[in-house]
Design brief:
The chain is of the alpha+beta class. It is 15% helix and 36% strand. The N and C termini lie far apart (195 Å). Keywords: Disulfide bond, Immunoglobulin domain, Membrane, Signal, Transmembrane, Transmembrane helix.
C-alpha cells in the first residue's frame, strides 16, 4: 500500500496533483503546473510490516525574471553628493542583475558608478551608487533653462543624471526596468523682476526664471498695498509673466515673485511698482465706485447746492438791511417823542418790511406835516423859508 502526502505536516494533495497507475506505483500527475504548486512533497509507503518508508520530493516550477515595482523617479535632495538606485527581481532559476545607461552596460566599479548584487531566495537585489552629483548640479544652476523640455533633453548628455536601466537575466528570459535619477532641489529665486507695462488699474509683470531645482516649477505672485485684491492676493503663473488687475490708479504696490516646485518655494524677489494716473476719458465700469475726487458729488447736485446757498445769502442780507433801517427809524421817532408828541400822535411812525429793505410809509395827502420840537405850526399864509419856521416874538 502506498500513500503520498503534501508538505511537512501531511496536508492533503491539491486537486492539480493526482496519483496514477494501477496498482499505485508512487507516481503523481501534475495538471496545470504553477508557482503555487512548487514545494516539498512526501511519499509514504506502508505494507503493514514494520514502520512505513518515506521519501521527500521537491517540485520546482521555473519562470522568467520578475522585477519588483519601484518608483520610476528617484529624486536627489539639496546638497547631495551621492545618489543610490535600488533594484530587486525574482525568478527560477536564479536571476542575475546588471545596470545599463542609454544602451551601454555599466561596469561594477567605474569612475562615476559602483554597483553590487546579493541574493535572498527567491529574490536577487542590486544597488547602483552614482557619485559626483554636485558637479552636474552646479553646472545646471549656472546656466538654467526656462524650457522644461530643454532640461529633459540635457539629461542624456551628463554622466550622473537621467535614465538608468536595471536588467534581470536568467535561463528563462530577460526583464528591464527604467528609473530616472533627477535633481530635486528647491528652486532658485526669479531674476530681473520688472514692470512690462503699467496701467491705471493693472500691472504687467515679467521676470527671468532661475534654476528650477531639477523639477518643473511655477511662480507665485503677490501684490500688497492700498486697494490690492482681497486675500489671498496671490496668483499662480506657469511662465515668467503675469498681469495683475483690479488695482488703484497712481498707487505704489509691493510685488513679490516666488518660484515653487514639488520640493518647496524659493527665496522671494521683491520690487515696487506704481500704477499710472487715471485718464479723464477713462470709462467707468458698471457697478464700480467712482475714483476719489475733490467734489462731494455729481455736477448737477453741486450746482443745485450752490444755487440754494446763494439764495440763502441774499435772503440773510435783505433781512439784515431791514433790521438796520428799522433801528434807525426807531431812533428818529424816539427823539421826536422826547421833544413833544401831538395829541393826534402824528409823531408815531411805522416800518414796513419787505425782502428789498424797509422804509417809512408816506404821510396822508390831507395831513399837515409834522412840526419840529413842539413849536406851533406857522400861521396860515406864511410859508417857512427853506422849510424852517420863523422865530416867535420875544415877550
Amino acid at each position: 500500500m502506498q500513500e503520498a502526502s503534501h508538505g511537512a505536516e501531511g496536508a492533503a494533495l491539491p486537486p492539480a496533483l493526482q496519483p496514477y497507475g494501477s496498482p499505485p506505483r508512487g507516481r503523481l500527475r501534475v495538471v496545470g503546473a504553477g508557482r503555487a504548486l512548487a514545494g516539498a512533497y512526501q511519499c509514504r509507503v506502508d505494507n503493514g510490516v514494520g514502520p512505513p518508508a518515506t521519501a521527500l520530493i521537491r517540485l520546482v516550477v521555473t519562470y522568467g525574471p520578475e522585477l519588483e515595482e519601484d518608483p520610476p523617479v528617484v529624486p536627489v535632495g539639496d546638497g547631495a553628493e551621492v545618489a543610490e538606485l535600488r533594484c530587486r527581481a525574482r525568478g527560477v532559476p536564479a536571476v542575475e542583475l546588471s545596470w545599463e545607461r542609454y544602451g551601454q552596460s555599466l561596469p561594477p566599479d567605474g569612475d562615476w558608478y559602483h554597483w553590487r548584487q546579493w541574493r535572498e531566495a527567491p529574490w536577487s537585489g542590486s544597488v547602483l551608487t552614482v557619485t559626483n552629483v554636485s558637479l552636474e548640479r552646479s553646472q545646471r544652476r549656472a546656466a538654467p533653462s526656462p524650457n522644461w523640455d530643454q532640461y529633459r533633453n540635457w539629461e542624456p548628455r551628463n554622466r550622473t543624471l537621467g535614465s538608468f536601466v536595471c536588467v534581470a537575466r536568467s535561463a528563462r528570459g530577460t526583464a528591464r526596468r527604467e528609473m530616472r535619477l533627477q535633481l530635486a532641489d528647491r528652486p532658485d529665486p526669479p531674476r530681473d523682476v520688472r514692470v512690462l507695462q503699467s496701467g491705471p488699474t493693472a500691472l504687467s509683470l515679467g521676470w527671468t526664471a532661475g534654476f528650477g531645482g531639477g523639477l518643473q516649477q511655477s511662480f507665485i505672485v503677490r501684490v500688497e498695498g492700498p486697494g490690492a485684491p482681497p486675500p489671498p492676493a496671490a496668483f499662480l503663473s506657469p511662465g515668467p509673466a503675469l498681469t495683475v488687475s483690479g488695482l488703484r490708479p497712481s498707487t505704489t504696490y509691493d510685488v513679490t515673485v516666488v518660484a515653487r516646485n514639488s520640493r518647496g518655494d524659493s527665496a522671494p524677489a521683491v520690487i515696487k511698482a506704481t500704477t499710472s494716473e487715471l485718464p479723464q476719458d477713462w470709462p467707468q465700469p458698471p457697478g464700480e465706485a467712482p475714483p476719489p475726487s475733490a467734489l462731494p458729488g455729481p455736477p448737477v447736485l453741486v450746482g443745485a447746492l450752490c444755487a440754494v446757498g446763494a439764495l440763502l445769502l441774499l435772503g440773510n442780507g435783505a433781512l439784515a438791511a431791514a433790521l438796520l433801517r428799522r433801528n434807525r427809524n426807531r431812533k428818529r421817532g424816539g427823539g421826536a417823542d422826547e421833544r413833544g408828541r401831538s395829541p393826534e400822535g402824528r409823531g408815531e411812525q411805522s416800518v414796513e418790511m419787505s425782502s428789498m429793505g424797509s422804509w417809512p410809509p408816506p404821510p396822508p395827502s390831507d395831513a399837515a406835516p409834522p412840526h419840529l420840537g413842539g413849536l406851533p405850526p406857522p400861521p396860515p399864509g406864511r410859508t417857512p423859508k427853506n422849510g424852517v419856521p420863523p422865530r416867535p416874538p420875544r415877550g
